[in-house]
Amino acid sequence: MAAQVQLGYCDPGQEMAWAKAKTNAERDQRKGNAMRIAAGLIFASAVSLCASGAAWSQAAAPKGAAAPQPVPAPAPAAAPKSAAAPQAAPAPAPAAAPKSTAAPQAAPAPAPAAAAAPAKAPCANPNALGIARIVEIDTTGGPGFGFEHFKQLDFLREHEVVLTFDDGPWPVNTPSVLKTLAEECTTGVFFPIGKHATYYPEILKQVAAAGHTIGSHTWSHANLNNKKLTEDQRKEEIEKGISAVKWALGGAPFAPFFRFPALQHPPEMVTYLGTRNVAIFSCDLDSFDFKASKPQTVIDSVMKKVDKLGKGIILMHDFQKHTAEALPELMHRLKAGGYKVVQMRAKTPVQSLAQYDEEILKDAKLPTVSSRPVSSVVQTISE
Q: Scanning 137, 189, 223, 339, which has the fewest C-beta atoms within 10 Å of its C-beta?
């Protein structure tokens, strides 16, 4: 019992020492654990830092490697761009080359056209009269030309003449006049009668094809100063003449130039032509070739008057046989006298009136008229 009691006895001092020792041990253990934990954390941090540093250095290395690559990469990228630029440059270059090649090809095209003018009038005659000057006429308001009646517009220079021909077209005579003008490489203004134009449209087309200026000269060559004619009848003479020329030329444009028959100018009709913007032609000298009995009379009449005036608009008739016969020598005399021909052209073509166009169509009986040239219808097969 005592032993049992002795064995179970516990000294309080020893118990306190043991408890204290136990507490110190636990504290030391805890402290050691804390230190181990701290060391582990420090070690883990170091490892993490190293790993991060390695990872950063590995990540930086690609960046550093990529940095050089972009530098070459842009260089190649720039190279394609520059390569593309040269490629683009050649592309325009060929495009420009076709244009330049087209330009030379286009340039020769006008060259023949320019050569066509001389070819049309070869002027083999070294003494040809030729054309010294071409003037364009603005017919607004109906200006008048020719000092016999209109003295406001003095546009001819010294020794300049305008050749004019009335009353055609007419077989033999008009073609003969055209032949002489072609041989002399010169030109004239033709004032055809409307009825004659419907009789011989092919001849009038020849006048136009030769490059001459064409006006009009009434429908039937009526004297518009005739008191028996009403104002409407006078207008009809003018307008039907214009429409007849238009029909004969197949609708081709011609000049708003008009000459009164016998140079008779009714004031009301002068005013009317002004409203139609048609220029009125008188003359500076009349050849009076319709009174001549032989060609020499025509030549002498013209040369005497033109030498006196020194210049002028000359009135002749391609309807007259003696005029056609006199023309070659007259051209030589004008050339020898130092005269130069001026061509008169209109700025804008004449506009016919529909009412009179319709009348001409009825009078002309179109179904019987062939639009083919005479040479394609009639051919000489034996002479």
A: 223
